[in-house]
User: Fold this.
Amino acid sequence: MKPSNIRNFCIIAHIDHGKSTLADRLLQVTGTLSEREMQDQVLDTMDLEREKGVTIKASAVRMEYTAANGEVYEMNLIDTPGHVDFAYEVSRALQSCEGAILVVDATQGVEAQTLANLYFAIEADLELIPVVNKIDLPAAQPDEVAEEVEAITGIPAEEAIPISAKTGHNIEAVLEAVVARVPPPDLDAELPLRALVFDSHYDSYKGVIAYIRVFDGALDKRQWIKMMSNDVTAEPIEIGIFGPAMKPVNRLQAGEVGYIATGLKTVRECRVGDTITLRDNSAQFPLPGYEAVKPMVFAGFYPTEGEDYALLKEALERLQLNDAALVYEPETSDALNFGFRCGFLGLFHMEIIQERLEREYDLDLVATAPSVRYEVIMAHTDELRIIESPADLPDEGQIAEIREPWMHVQIFTPEDYYGVVMELAMKRRGQFMGQEYPAPGRVALKFDLPLAEIIVDFYDKLKSLTRGYASMDYDFVGYRASNLVKLSVLVAKQPVDALAMIVHEDDAYNRGQKLVTQLRKLIPRQMFEVPIQAATGKRVISRANVKALRKDVLAKCYGGDVTRKRKLLEKQKKGKKRMKMIGNVEVPQEAFMAVLKLNED
Assistant:
């Protein structure tokens, strides 16, 4: 294929605006898949993606299209996720393209993720093709939405293509626009090979399979390759293209998108964002990659049965092969024994990983309440420590200051819900940064919020308060010093590390009281009285007692001297005291979930 007839493009949109359906129609119109092979969400291969109706992993496919001018074009499409947690997948995919189809729902208009992905595309200097989807719905307003897109992108409203990905209406126009507007790759076939790894997955027969976009040079079958970041070399088992199934080929040349089955056994040796070159004729400099993904949310995963620990370790290793954003390390807890501290991009990412572990590996897990990563400056040494688990926070006297991650949050909402969104953000220690009116009746509110206040239920609350109309997007601003304290929970005077959390000082009393009240209902009664305490540092701020189960020792006393009754009660008291010294209290799984439900009232 002539390089001038190659088009590399991706589809970007807010979650649920119809990216995967549009990708299905493009495959159908170009004849890449026959009617028999067609199914909904072809490129979403995971069961979870189909069930939740969201794309989790970026995927690539090559199509051949005969344009109106009679020329045959090679179209490389990269389908990207829309959920805010997977924004890193989007940024990687954009590096491999020259153009992007920006899909906007004709009933919803421009939403938060539409804007976030649009900025990604502008930064990557891509040619944009606006497409207004779902025009077949009764509530569609394609003209108004096209004007909204014009206000944001500057592309004239008449250039936005109205389509219905569901019925297939006007799909040809999208392909023609890609041919006409997306530039062919700018490349030099004479230079040494440089290919960017934009995704990878693990195959038990072929090792790590790297999804690549070739920028310079060419790669022939059986030529030895080298990773530029760590100098690992390998002889590829096969090279090929996506159609959308893998098809081996003999050669990949500059401008093409394809895959290399490297035969490497761990994804660490072939990192996403790395540059692949030839072992014998190496390139001098790697391609400008992108930063490693930084996990934002941390939680402990523990097997309910202690003997499943080895299975959980193996399952996490396998999941990490397909998901570069997952990090984990072993940790132990007095209450839950052995498990792992795992890092995720957000709460949705955590939910997906937990579901995959339970489904694909048949594990029964206990997850602790999610927390974020804190930076602690030590008092005497000025040393900076990274704290990922509240249990690791040093004593108050050793700390000069604690810094927490803050996010810049952008919320799109109809004007009617201005007040409730404002109130929600302010309740969560938000700082109002400004507002814009991108379209009549809609407002974009900007806040700075601590990540710890967002991760648990901020999104759910936002959706319920605005009847599902608001959408949000967030990105990391930096660490800021805050007045934070560690809230510890003691059951029978023993600290339960898995229930500890880091909270703002003003909120500590309120949280402690709620938590103690919840735990009192959940911890079963023992033969002795069990005190439950919430403490910050050495100060107990709330306490409740779980009453003891008692035998009625006075049942046999009828009348008689009161000293006899007192003697029996004293005897019982001594027995309870002795039992308390050796008794230990089991904390049930519901107690760990109680921490999550604190914000609900």
Summary: The chain has five domains: 3-181, 194-278, 297-368, 375-482, 486-600. The mean pLDDT is 80. The domain at 3-181 is CATH 3.40.50.300 (Rossmann fold).
